[in-house]
Request: fold
Amino acid sequence: MDLVEGQRRRRGAELEEALLEAAWAELSEHGYGALTIDAVAQRAGTSRTVVYRRWATKVELTEAAVSWVGRHRTDPPDTGSLREDLLALMRETNRTRVGLMALVIVYLGGYFQETGTTPYDLRRLLLDGGPAGLETIVQRAAERGEIDPARLTPRVLSVASDLFRHEAIMRLGPVPDEVLLSIVDDVYLPLVTASVTSDA
Reply:
């Protein structure tokens, strides 16, 4: 039964939220190899039948938990400046989501081996919740006339987040602020603002 002593019965979206939160906590603490349906059910205060009713396998539950994390992204900063927005976004990611990158590399190795997928494939689940914060920030900057939209090829658009992700994965932890400044000032801003600067 989905009921523990002193707790009201949860249903629908509320119950699913509790299950996914429990699954993510188990993944974060113990890794994919040690993940069990029983542990998720116990943490969520429900039964394994309730979990299996929604996700038939550990793979399905893991993918649902990763997608759940993606849906809980915070709104991107809007300072009125491309530079300050980029730095604020990366600093917030340092604070709240660098652990996710480490988890993907260290704790989900068994998942990738079992499914034949890669971190790149799993990243799609994280982005299913809507546009990434960087895309929103860059779009706002283009509307303000800070950058040249013609320069925004997919590779140019993603280079700041790619460099940040590489640094975070190599360090398995937060990226130093001086590196963030270098990514923004030495690489990204010159790429996206060159035509605007020359026209001015």
